[in-house]
C-alpha cells in the first residue's frame, strides 16, 4: 500500500527531499547483509510505498510539493532531478510568488482557501496513481507561515475529503531560542488545529536533533542539511518495510495503519516521538560492532529515561508501554513509542503555551493575525484545547 | 519571486539611490555569471528590449538585453537627477520614471508636502502605477529620503499616504536619514517632526539612520586603512569602503562612502528574499516579526563586516567576532545604545557560508548581555542566505526593534520646541496654503505619544517576569 507525502513550506520541502533520498538509497544500497531474494522483496515493497514507476525507469516520488514562494521548490526539484536516481513528478508541485510571511493567519485564512482547489487536485492526482492508498504523510514545520498555516488547512481538507485514509503529520518543533519571533503563536494555533483533524502527530524537535548532530555525529559546523539528514534517517527507519507475522519475505502491507493501531489507542493521545539508535557518523561506523541485545538494551534505557540520545541519560524511571518489531535490513533499530514520558513534550508545549499566553496578554503582534481574520477567540480556543491535552497527559 | 520598487526623493534620497543601483548591479553581476535574466534580478530590474520603440518591450526570460531599474526618481530641483542621468548609470533609468521641477522646496516641509504634493499628485500616481504594472507580483516599496530637508521629507511623506491609498497591500519600507544635531539646515527639526507624524501613521517599517554615525564609521575605517595597520584581515577594496570597480569612476564625493553603507543595508535586507538559502526570510516576515505593535515600527540597524576578511575559510572565532561587532555601538547606523535599553525584537540576517550551529552558538553567547522585554524573551528572528555580498565571505545585518530610539526622538522634540517657542521661521510654513499651527501641534503630540509608548515599555524593564497563571480548565 502506498503513502502519499505532502511537503509544505521551506522546512517541509527540504526535509521531504532528504527523506526520499534516504529511502531510495536505503533500498538500493549495495551492502546487504541478507540474501538476494530478500533484498529484492524489500526493494519492491519500499518502492511501491513511496515511488511510482516511469517509462525510462527513473522512479518518481509519490509527493506533492507546496510552497508559497518559488525558491525552495525550484531547488528541491532540481536537486532531485540532478541526482539522476529518482525525481519528483513534473507537475507535482504548487507554488506562488509571495510567501506567507511567518503568519499562520495568512497561511490558514488567505492562502489556504484561495488555493484549496489546486492543491487538492494535485493530491488527487497522486492518489489516483496509487493502487491502494495507505494514507498521507504530511511534513511541515510549526514556526513558519506556510508549513503551519497551510498545513493545518490541508490536513483539515484531507480529513473532509479522504475520511477513511489515515493522516500522519510530521511536525518540526522549532528551536527554543527562536528562529521566528512569533513561533509560539504559530505553534499553538497549528497544534490545536492538527489535534482535531490529524490521526497522529510525529514530533521532531530541532533542539534535540541538533544535539544529536553535535554530540553523536561529531559534526563541527552543523547545517540544516545535516539536521535534515538525521531526521530523514529516523523517518526512514519508521517507514521502511517491516516483516509481518507470516514470516520473512512477506512485508507488512499497511505501514500507517499498523503504526496507528499500535500507537494511538485513544484519539486524545496522538503525539508520537522517535528514538533511534545507533546514530553515529559514517566514519565511526567502521569501528563499531553491534549486537541486537546490546542495541535493544540501550534503546530501552533511552525510552525509560526519555532521552533522545545514547549519551547523557538522565535517570528518572517511568515505565514505558509498547514497542514495535524491529526492522530487518540494516543494523538499525528504532522504537516508535508513545508513553507517559511524552510528558516531556507536554511540558515543552506547556511552556510554549505559557509564553504565547504572556504575549497575548499584552496583545503583542495580535494585529498581524487579526488582519487576516484570526481573532482573540481563536487563540483562546487553541489554548484551551492544548491545556486539555496537557492535562490528560499529566493524568496518565 | 516578488518585485520591489524603489522610490528615491530629494537630493539625499537620489544620491543614496544612485549608490544603491550601482551596488545592486555589481552584486548581480558577481552572482549571475551566465547573463540570464533570472528571478533574483527581476526583483529590482526589468529586462527590456531597447530596440522596441516606446516603453521597450519587457522580456521575461532569456539573456539579459538591457536592464532597467524598477525605480521612480523624484526631485523638485533638477541638479541631482540630471547628474545621474548624465552619469554612467543613465542607461539603467528610464526618462519616464522621473519627476522633476525647477525651483526646489527650499527646505520647507510645507512646500514639499502641500504645494508640490497637490501639484504632482497625478503624475506621481501615474508613474507608480506604471512601475507596478511592470511587476508580476509587487511586494514592497522602498522609499529613500531625508527628514531634514523640504522635498525628501515633505513630498516623501506625502507619497506615503498616496501609496497607502493606492496600493494598500504593498509594504512600505522607509529609509530615513535623520538630521544630526550639527545639521546645516536650521529648520530641520520642524521638517523632521512634521514628517515623523506621517511616518508614524503610514509607514510599515522605518529604518532610521543618522549622518553622524555613518561619518563615524567611515572615519574609523579610514583610520584602519590609512594607518598602515593593514594586516591580512583588511582588504582595502571591499564593496563597502571603496568604489573601486564601480561605474562612477570620478573623484570621490564626500558623501559617497556614507551612501554606500546605506545602499549595502538595503541590499542585505533583501538578499534573503532574492537569493536562496537554508532559512529564507522574505520582506513580509520582517514586518511580521519585528513589529509587535503597529506604532512601534522603528528598527535600528547595524551592519558587519565593514571591511573585508581575506581568508576564505574563516575559523569560528572570526565569525563570532562578526556577531559581537553587530551588537557594538560602532557598527550601528544610528546613534543609540541598544545594549542598555530594552529589546522588543531582534532579527539577524546572515549571508554567506554560515551554518545554523554558528548562529545558535552566537545567540546563546550574546543573549545574556541583552535585555529583552518580558513577553518576548526568545525574540530572535534568523535567516541564512547562501549568497555572500561582493568582496566578503559572509556578512551580518542586525535589525533591532529597541527602545533606544527614544532618546533620538526626545532630542528631536527638544530642538523643535526650542524653535517653536520663539516661533522662529514659522511664517515660512504658515504662508503655505493649507498649513496651520495645528499641524505643528498635532505633529508634536503624535511624537509625544510614541515616546510615551516607549517609556511604558521601558518601565517594564526592571520588573521581574510576571508569572501569568495558566488557563485552568474543567476536566
From TrEMBL, chain A:
<keyword id="KW-0206">Cytoskeleton</keyword>
<dbReference type="InterPro" id="IPR000217">
    <property type="entry name" value="Tubulin"/>
</dbReference>
<dbReference type="Pfam" id="PF00091">
    <property type="entry name" value="Tubulin"/>
</dbReference>
<dbReference type="InterPro" id="IPR036525">
    <property type="entry name" value="Tubulin/FtsZ_GTPase_sf"/>
</dbReference>
<dbReference type="GO" id="GO:0005929">
    <property type="term" value="C:cilium"/>
</dbReference>
<dbReference type="InterPro" id="IPR008280">
    <property type="entry name" value="Tub_FtsZ_C"/>
</dbReference>
<keyword id="KW-0342">GTP-binding</keyword>
<dbReference type="GO" id="GO:0005874">
    <property type="term" value="C:microtubule"/>
</dbReference>
<dbReference type="GO" id="GO:0005634">
    <property type="term" value="C:nucleus"/>
</dbReference>
<dbReference type="GO" id="GO:0007017">
    <property type="term" value="P:microtubule-based process"/>
</dbReference>
<feature type="domain" description="Tubulin/FtsZ GTPase">
    <location>
        <begin position="47"/>
        <end position="247"/>
    </location>
</feature>
<dbReference type="InterPro" id="IPR002967">
    <property type="entry name" value="Delta_tubulin"/>
</dbReference>
<dbReference type="GO" id="GO:0005814">
    <property type="term" value="C:centriole"/>
</dbReference>
<keyword id="KW-0547">Nucleotide-binding</keyword>
<keyword id="KW-0970">Cilium biogenesis/degradation</keyword>
<keyword id="KW-0493">Microtubule</keyword>
<dbReference type="GO" id="GO:0005525">
    <property type="term" value="F:GTP binding"/>
</dbReference>
<protein>
    <recommendedName>
        <fullName>Tubulin delta chain</fullName>
    </recommendedName>
</protein>
<comment type="similarity">
    <text>Belongs to the tubulin family.</text>
</comment>
<keyword id="KW-0966">Cell projection</keyword>
<dbReference type="GO" id="GO:0030030">
    <property type="term" value="P:cell projection organization"/>
</dbReference>
<comment type="function">
    <text>Acts as a positive regulator of hedgehog signaling and regulates ciliary function.</text>
</comment>
From TrEMBL, chain B:
<keyword id="KW-0206">Cytoskeleton</keyword>
<dbReference type="Pfam" id="PF00091">
    <property type="entry name" value="Tubulin"/>
</dbReference>
<dbReference type="GO" id="GO:0005874">
    <property type="term" value="C:microtubule"/>
</dbReference>
<feature type="domain" description="Tubulin/FtsZ GTPase">
    <location>
        <begin position="55"/>
        <end position="277"/>
    </location>
</feature>
<dbReference type="InterPro" id="IPR018316">
    <property type="entry name" value="Tubulin/FtsZ_2-layer-sand-dom"/>
</dbReference>
<dbReference type="InterPro" id="IPR017975">
    <property type="entry name" value="Tubulin_CS"/>
</dbReference>
<dbReference type="Pfam" id="PF03953">
    <property type="entry name" value="Tubulin_C"/>
</dbReference>
<dbReference type="GO" id="GO:0007017">
    <property type="term" value="P:microtubule-based process"/>
</dbReference>
<keyword id="KW-0963">Cytoplasm</keyword>
<dbReference type="InterPro" id="IPR000217">
    <property type="entry name" value="Tubulin"/>
</dbReference>
<dbReference type="GO" id="GO:0005813">
    <property type="term" value="C:centrosome"/>
</dbReference>
<dbReference type="InterPro" id="IPR008280">
    <property type="entry name" value="Tub_FtsZ_C"/>
</dbReference>
<keyword id="KW-0493">Microtubule</keyword>
<dbReference type="InterPro" id="IPR004057">
    <property type="entry name" value="Epsilon_tubulin"/>
</dbReference>
<keyword id="KW-0342">GTP-binding</keyword>
<comment type="similarity">
    <text>Belongs to the tubulin family.</text>
</comment>
<dbReference type="InterPro" id="IPR023123">
    <property type="entry name" value="Tubulin_C"/>
</dbReference>
<dbReference type="GO" id="GO:0005525">
    <property type="term" value="F:GTP binding"/>
</dbReference>
<protein>
    <recommendedName>
        <fullName>Tubulin epsilon chain</fullName>
    </recommendedName>
</protein>
<dbReference type="InterPro" id="IPR036525">
    <property type="entry name" value="Tubulin/FtsZ_GTPase_sf"/>
</dbReference>
<comment type="subunit">
    <text>Found in a complex with TEDC1, TEDC2, TUBE1 and TUBD1.</text>
</comment>
<feature type="domain" description="Tubulin/FtsZ 2-layer sandwich">
    <location>
        <begin position="279"/>
        <end position="414"/>
    </location>
</feature>
Amino acid at each position: 500500500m502506498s503513502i502519499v507525502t505532502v511537503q509544505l513550506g521551506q522546512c517541509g520541502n527540504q526535509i521531504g527531499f532528504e527523506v526520499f533520498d534516504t529511502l531510495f538509497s536505503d533500498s538500493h544500497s549495495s551492502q546487504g547483509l541478507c540474501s538476494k531474494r530478500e533484498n529484492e522483496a524489500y526493494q519492491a515493497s519500499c518502492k511501491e510505498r513511496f515511488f511510482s514507476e516511469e517509462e525510462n525507469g527513473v522512479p518518481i516520488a509519490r509527493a506533492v510539493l507546496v510552497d508559497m514562494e518559488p525558491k525552495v521548490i525550484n531547488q528541491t526539484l532540481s536537486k532531485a532531478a540532478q541526482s539522476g536516481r529518482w525525481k519528483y513528478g513534473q507537475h507535482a508541485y504548487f507554488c506562488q510568488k509571495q510567501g506567507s510571511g511567518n503568519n499562520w493567519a495568512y497561511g490558514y485564512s488567505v492562502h489556504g482557501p484561495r488555493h484549496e482547489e489546486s492543491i487538492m487536485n494535485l493530491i488527487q492526482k497522486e492518489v489516483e496513481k496509487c493502487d491502494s492508498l495507505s494514507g498521507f504523510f504530511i511534513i511541515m514545520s510549526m514556526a513558519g507561515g506556510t508549513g503551519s498555516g497551510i498545513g493545518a488547512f490541508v490536513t483539515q481538507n484531507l480529513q473532509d475529503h479522504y475520511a477513511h485514509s489515515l493522516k500522519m503529520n510530521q511536525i518540526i518543533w522549532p528551536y527554543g531560542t527562536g528562529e521566528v519571533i512569533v513561533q509560539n503563536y504559530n505553534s499553538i494555533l497549528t497544534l490545536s488545529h492538527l489535534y482535531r483533524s490529524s490521526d497522529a502527530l510525529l514530533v521532531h524537535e530541532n533542539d534535540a536533533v541538533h544535539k544529536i548532530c553535535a554530540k553523536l555525529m561529531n559534526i563541527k559546523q552543523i547545517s540544516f542539511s545535516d539536521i535534515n539528514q538525521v531526521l530523514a534517517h529516523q523517518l526512514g527507519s519508521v517507514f521502511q518495510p517491516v516483516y509481518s507475522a507470516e514470516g520473512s519475505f512477506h512485508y507488512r502491507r499497511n505501514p500507517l495503519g499498523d503504526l496507528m493501531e499500535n500507537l494511538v489507542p485513544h484519539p486524545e493521545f496522538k503525539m508520537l516521538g522517535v528514538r533511534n539508535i545507533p546514530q553515529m557518523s559514517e566514519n565511526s561506523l567502521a569501528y563499531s560492532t553491534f549486537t541486537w541485545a546490546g542495541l535493544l538494551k540501550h534503546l530501552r534505557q533511552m525510552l525509560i529515561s526519555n532521552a533522545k540520545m545514547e549519551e547523557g541519560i538522565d535517570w528518572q524511571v517511568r515505565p514505558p508501554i509498547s514497542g514495535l518489531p524491529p526492522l530487518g535490513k540494516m543494523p538499525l533499530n528504532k522504537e516508535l513509542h508513545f508513553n507517559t514520558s511524552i510528558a516531556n513534550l507536554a511540558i515543552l508545549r506547556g511552556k510554549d503555551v505559557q509564553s504565547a499566553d504572556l504575549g497575548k496578554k499584552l496583545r503583542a503582534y495580535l494585529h498581524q493575525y487579526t488582519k487576516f481574520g484570526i481573532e482573540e477567540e481563536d487563540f483562546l480556543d487553541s489554548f484551551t484545547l492544548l491545556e486539555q491535552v496537557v492535562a490528560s497527559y499529566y493524568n496518565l | 519571486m516578488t518585485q520591489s520598487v524603489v522610490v528615491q526623493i530629494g537630493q539625499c534620497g537620489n544620491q543614496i539611490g544612485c549608490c544603491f543601483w550601482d551596488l545592486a548591479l555589481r552584486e548581480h553581476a558577481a552572482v549571475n555569471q551566465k547573463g540570464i535574466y533570472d528571478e533574483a534580478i527581476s526583483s529590482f530590474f526589468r529586462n527590456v528590449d531597447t530596440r522596441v520603440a516606446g516603453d521597450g518591450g519587457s522580456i521575461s526570460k532569456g539573456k539579459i538585453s538591457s536592464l532597467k531599474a524598477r525605480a521612480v526618481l523624484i526631485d523638485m530641483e533638477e541638479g541631482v537627477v540630471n547628474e545621474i542621468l548624465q552619469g554612467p548609470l543613465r542607461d539603467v533609468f528610464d526618462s519616464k520614471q522621473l519627476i522633476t521641477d525647477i525651483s526646489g522646496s527650499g527646505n520647507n516641509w510645507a512646500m514639499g508636502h502641500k504645494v508640490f504634493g497637490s501639484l504632482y499628485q497625478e503624475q506621481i500616481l501615474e508613474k507608480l502605477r506604471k512601475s507596478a504594472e511592470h511587476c508580476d507580483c509587487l511586494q514592497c516599496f522602498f522609499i529613500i529620503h531625508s527628514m531634514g530637508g523640504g522635498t525628501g521629507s515633505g513630498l516623501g511623506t506625502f507619497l506615503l499616504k498616496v501609496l497607502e491609498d493606492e496600493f494598500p497591500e504593498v509594504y512600505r519600507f522607509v529609509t530615513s536619514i535623520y538630521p544630526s544635531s550639527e545639521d546645516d539646515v536650521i529648520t530641520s527639526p520642524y521638517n523632521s517632526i512634521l514628517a515623523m507624524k506621517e511616518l508614524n501613521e503610514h509607514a510599515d517599517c522605518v529604518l532610521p539612520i543618522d549622518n553622524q554615525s555613518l561619518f563615524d564609521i567611515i572615519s574609523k575605517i579610514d583610520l584602519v586603512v590609512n594607518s598602515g595597520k593593514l594586516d591580512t584581515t583588511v582588504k582595502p577594496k571591499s564593496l563597502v569602503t571603496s568604489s573601486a570597480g564601480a561605474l562612477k569612476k570620478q573623484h570621490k564625493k564626500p558623501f559617497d562612502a556614507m551612501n554606500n553603507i546605506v545602499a549595502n543595508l538595503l541590499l542585505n535586507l533583501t538578499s534573503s528574499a532574492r537569493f536562496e538559502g537554508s532559512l529564507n526570510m522574505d520582506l513580509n516576515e520582517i514586518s511580521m516579526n519585528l513589529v509587535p505593535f503597529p506604532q512601534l515600527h522603528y528598527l535600528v540597524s547595524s551592519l558587519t563586516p565593514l571591511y573585508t576578511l581575506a581568508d576564505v575559510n574563516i575559523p569560528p572565532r572570526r565569525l563570532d567576532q562578526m556577531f559581537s561587532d553587530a551588537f557594538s555601538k560602532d557598527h550601528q547606523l544610528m546613534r543609540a545604545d541598544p545594549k542598555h535599553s530594552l529589546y522588543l525584537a531582534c532579527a539577524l540576517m546572515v549571508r554567506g557560508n554560515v551554518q545554523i550551529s554558528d548562529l545558535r552558538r552566537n545567540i546563546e553567547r550574546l543573549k545574556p548581555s541583552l535585555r529583552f522585554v518580558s513577553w518576548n524573551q526568545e525574540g530572535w528572528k534568523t535567516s541564512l542566505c547562501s549568497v555572500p555580498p561582493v568582496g566578503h565571505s559572509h556578512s551580518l545585518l542586525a535589525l533591532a526593534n529597541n527602545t533606544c530610539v527614544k532618546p533620538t526622538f526626545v532630542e528631536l522634540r527638544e530642538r523643535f520646541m526650542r524653535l517653536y517657542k520663539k516661533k522662529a521661521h514659522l511664517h515660512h510654513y504658515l504662508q503655505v496654503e493649507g498649513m496651520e499651527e495645528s499641524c505643528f501641534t498635532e505633529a508634536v503630540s503624535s511624537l509625544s505619544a510614541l515616546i510615551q509608548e516607549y517609556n511604558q515599555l521601558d518601565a517594564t524593564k526592571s520588573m521581574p517576569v510576571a508569572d501569568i497563571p495558566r488557563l485552568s480548565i474543567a476536566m
